[in-house]
Amino acid sequence: MINLKKVSLLAVIGAMLVPAAYAADTEYHDVVHDVRGNVVTSTDGNCVITQWESKTDECGGAPIAKRDVRSRLTKEQRTVYFDFNKSTLNAHEKAKLDSLSKIIIESKQVENVDIVGYADMIGTQSYNKKLSMKRAQTVKAYLAAKGLKTRNVHVEGLGEADSVTHCDPKQDRKDLIACLAADRRVEIELNVKQ
Questions:
Q1: Exposed, middle or buried, 74 (CB in 10 Å: 0-12/13-18/19+)?
Q2: What does the alpha-carbon distance between residue 30 and residue 55 come to, in Å, rounded to a whole number?
Q3: 54-73 pLDDT, tens digit each
Q4: Which of 190, 189, 186, 188 is nearest to 89 (CA)?
Q5: Position 139 pLDDT exceeds 70
Q6: Of the given ranges (16-20, 52-56, 151-155), which has the lowest mean pLDDT?
Q7: Chain-centre distance of CA 14, in angstroms?
Q8: Alpha-carbon distances of 117 from 87, 120, 130, 156, rounded to whole Å
Q9: Which segments of 27-124 does DSSP mark as H helices, in order?
Q10: What is the pTM of this model?
Q11: Could you count the other beta carbons within 10 Å of the beta carbon of residue 173?
Q12: Is residue 171 within 8 Å of 50, Cβ to Cβ?
């Protein structure tokens, strides 16, 4: 009789726990609740939210749009600069690529990556095209060493195309090289799942 009571009691407790476990799975984790279960708001009346996302926002009831990984990165964070006539990375640009590679690898949204190299207008077009490709290959190799799958990477060198500077080609060579610094770059574009 005692065993039957224990079994019955365990069955009742189990039946009570199943809905609680189900409710825990469906609970919203994107807003902060106080000890009474009320949604916590700031002095401005806005909901206090956590870093965890959910499909709905208890404060507004509207679906939360999943942040596109591209919106978290500025163009500057996706651009690597090179010294004049060089295709090697300096310490600052390596640090930038370290951060970027971590974001790309951790993101489930990124399907593939386009790496496009550029050069300034000093030198011949054919030389600059080769140099820009070499810069793009350098970035690809660095990202691959950090764990980026290279089968999802497209590399291109566009040479002098798409200049972002407005420099007078007649100025002193040293000043011209300094003025053209922003053209010596590699841009990294992230193509995400729609």
A1: exposed
A2: 9
A3: 555 566 644 444 455 555 67
A4: 186
A5: yes
A6: 16-20
A7: 44
A8: 10, 11, 10, 6
A9: 91-106
A10: 0.64
A11: 8
A12: no
